Amino acid sequence: xNGRLFAFGLVSLLAGQCNLASAQENAAYPAGFLQNGLExxxxxxxxxxxxxxxxxxxxxxxxxAQPAPQPGQPMGQPNPGLVQPAPAPAGPxxxxxxxxxxQQYLSRLQRAPDIFGDSFVPQTVVLDFSHFSDVGxxxxxxxxxxxxxxxxxxxxxxxFKNEQARALPTDRVFFLYNHFHNALEVRSTTGGxxxxxxxxxxxxxxxxxxxxxxxxxxxxxxxxxxxxNAPGFNFQSDGIGNFTAVLKRLMYADESTAFALGMAxxxxxxxxxxxxxxxxxxxxxxxxxxxxxxxPYAALQFAPDENWFFNAYAQVxxxxxxxxxxxxxxxxxxxxxxxxQTLLYLDAAAGYWWYRSDNEDGLTGLxxxxxxxxxxxxxxxPVNNIDRNGFLYYGSGQKRVDxxxxxxGINSEWWHHTSLRTAVVVPLGGESNRFFDGEVQVALIRRF
Length: 448
Fold this sequence. Notes:
The chain is mainly beta. The chain contains 4 helices and 21 strands. A 12-stranded antiparallel barrel has the order 3-4-5-8-9-12-13-16-17-19-20-21. The N and C termini lie far apart (70 Å).
């Protein structure tokens, strides 16, 4: 009798220890799996996105031990002993509990490359000396009294366009190089001159918010100093560009689609421009870089499968104020503010992954990209007259902007987090509907 009681007590003790061990094991696994009634054996911490998550951390977050599987229950089947809580409401970030670069449902979009873009938009002005017979002691040729020129303020191109960007907020740093061939031009009836622009941009983007649905991006461009000469005129400017800040909000995301809204603000941190008129050089026109530009935009990113990817942007460029213009010469001074056109930017890109690798080192992806870009005026261009005894007219150009460019590029991915990208941009319009004769882009982007 004593032996039977001892055996029964020993069996009960062992059963209690087994139940306790099972409860402790269950507590070490994420609540999300146990809420679905799955056995802990179903969880594999070697999966991508879980390799660096400690089971102890999940145990600390677990409310308490869970009931052991009932006898005879098949492995991996729902445990009827568990209380099933009400499911969380579905949404675009319903399973975004890990950091953004761990969100498996966004992995296809995370790896998709950015749009290349086409970023050069100069400010064009008109100088009219037709009502003044002598400027600074030097008579100008009658055919050269009306001059149209691209004023090199703000590092050559004072506007901002979304390039090397996408809808999905991303932690990254980047360096961009853009070579614009024949981007600045002085035109008159007797001829003209052109200059290339080499632009260098440093930038950073940082995500924030509970689900990394927000990001802020900062860009600072630089270029070489510009010295444009034409008969009777000389244009000079340093190469400091305009600082741009971009705020972006991801409005919707699933495994193949991301849609975002954003606002870019371009500040007038860049260089002014000086125009010297006449051989005596005693008439000077100073164009002050003062305009703040507001650029609201919408961005769409789409990756229907593991190979194809698409990007699209729609953006409006509005100048909140004008640039100051001051004319000084013998005995007289005049000044005013010159407004810039409001522009619409439409961009679309399609790309294809030709090579992808799961290796951790070296080249891990190679893709090609083809893009179309449109820049057009919204409304009529503004006209500004600065009256210096009736001899000078200063305007922002007498034509509407209607420019179409095509971009073809190659995106190479290294170590899954670094992109080295190069592209060429070709204008599709005629001489009067282009900002440059050609562009070469090189970008180095490091994502985190």
